[in-house]
Amino acid sequence: QVQLVESGGGLVQPGGSLRLSCAASGRTSFSNVRMAWFRQAPGKQREFVAGVSWYSTTSSYADFVKGRFTISRDNAKNMVYLQMNSAKPEDTAVYLCAAKIGDSGYDYWGQGIQVTVSS
Question: Which of 36, 64, 79, 101 has the fewest CB atoms within 10 Å of its CB?
Fold first, then answer.
């Protein structure tokens, strides 16, 4: 089992920055856990934003955030972050932290946190 809790959401102006945090717990080892951020805007389907393996430097991004968002993790603190720069109004959504173990799908989800990009 993996428990995930997001924090750091809120209101940001267009062009501004925000950092989301995800605290992970429930396992003694996260060596085979892949973490990701998804988002869901009102009336739209949930979409992948960025992902990273727990002990790997390999990360992946959706095209619409490449060059603007950065996913990172702090293994010592069991934390995953999403640094959002150059925010756009279309980035407004509920952002969810997710985890998958091995080759399974993303089975573990946080409660989600609202990000609103508006002037």
Answer: 64
- Exposure string over 60-96, b if 16+ CB within 10 A, otherwise e: ebeeebeeebbbebeeeebebbbebeebeeebbbbbb
Tell me the average confidence (pLDDT) per consecutive run of 10 residues in the chain, 119 residues long: 94 98 86 91 96 84 96 90 97 97 89 97
Are 62 and 47 in contact by the 8 Å Cβ rule? The answer is yes
> Which amino acid does the sequence have at 68?
R
Tokens (6 digits) for 119: 């002037």
- Tell me the C-alpha distance between 42 and 116, whole Å: 12
Q: How far apart are CA 15 and CA 84, in angstroms?
A: 10
